[in-house]
Design a protein that fits this description.
Order of helices and strands: HHHHHHHHHHHHEEH
Strand content: under 5%
Number of domains: 1
Strand order of the largest sheet: 1-2
Structural class: mainly alpha
């Protein structure tokens, strides 16, 4: 197992599970792309002095656009960038979007939420699109939708974890402009306004999953099932985020047994593309 694939197995269990359904050569390409995304995310999360952090990420974006493989993070992507030059723009755009992702980030409304999600995750969809055999421009927007859906699921799941790092990704307009960082975590879990905001996030995610999965037809046929499985497993995370009228106290995961069950169900009942149980209150 390559170092990149081991990283997927450790940091992205759902993505790793779905990647096992791809051809080995394609799995390596996807692992390299995912490895880069994780490295960018780690730089953004490490939060050295802001100027230093921004300089690192901008230098990385420029190296990607120029194909500068002397950069230590770009070097593993050398062959990928030669074979898929169209991946350079979303890679650089993702890197620049992560410059915004710090403890000072404030999202005011749904439009800003979706702009943020496109930057850090819609670009992942655009990156993966050509790797998975997508060539038609019409499919690019739908690939971005799928990335956005997964990011919205992450935001819904990680509200408490993000708060522990002094970060809030729920739009302040949805929170009646309250600063929930000043609340105790127990109060946040039971807060009616917070719970409703998360329900809204999950509804947005559900719509994006449906739109994104409608674009499977633009991928190479042999890759469609793996992406459908990845989306279905990610959507299932949202089913466990809210229990009753409170946030689930523990980080929601989809156990391997359920992933296998979902994959088998999709194999025999392919119309079951996304979760139907979106909490609506």
């Amino acid at each position: 197992m390559s170092a990149e694939t081991r990283l997927i197995a450790k940091a992205g269990r759902t993505f790793y599970f779905a990647s096992l359904l791809l051809r080995r050569d394609l799995r390596r390409d996807v692992a390299l792309a995912y490895y880069f995304c994780r490295m960018v995310d780690d730089i953004a999360d490490a939060e050295p002095p802001l100027q230093e952090r921004d300089s690192m990420l901008e230098g990385l974006a420029i190296a990607i656009l120029e194909g500068d493989t002397s950069h230590e993070i770009v070097r593993p992507l050398a062959s990928l960038l030669v074979r898929f030059p169209e991946a350079r723009h979303p890679l650089a755009a993702l890197t620049r979007a992560c410059r915004r992702d710090c403890h000072t980030l404030s999202l005011q409304d749904e439009r800003e939420l979706e702009t943020y999600a496109f930057g850090v995750a819609g670009n992942v969809g655009l990156l993966m699109y050509p790797l998975l055999g997508g060539v038609e421009p019409e499919g690019e927007r739908l690939a971005a939708d799928l990335g956005i859906a997964m990011q919205l699921t992450n935001i819904a799941r990680d509200v408490i974890e993000d708060l522990s790092r002094n970060r809030v990704y729920l739009p302040s307009e949805w929170l009646a402009n309250r600063d929930i960082r000043k609340m105790t975590l127990d109060d946040v879990r039971a807060d009616r306004v917070v719970v409703e905001a998360i329900r809204r996030i999950l509804r947005l995610a559900h719509d994006r999953y449906e739109r994104g999965l409608s674009g499977l037809r633009y991928l190479a046929p042999e890759n469609r099932f793996a992406i459908q499985v990845a989306a279905r497993c990610y959507a299932a995370i949202g089913d466990g985020v809210i229990q009753g009228d409170q946030l689930t106290p523990r980080r929601v995961i989809v156990p391997l047994s359920k992933k296998i069950s979902l994959a088998c169900g999709l194999r025999f009942f392919p119309s079951r593309a996304v979760s139907r149980s979106v909490p609506c209150g």
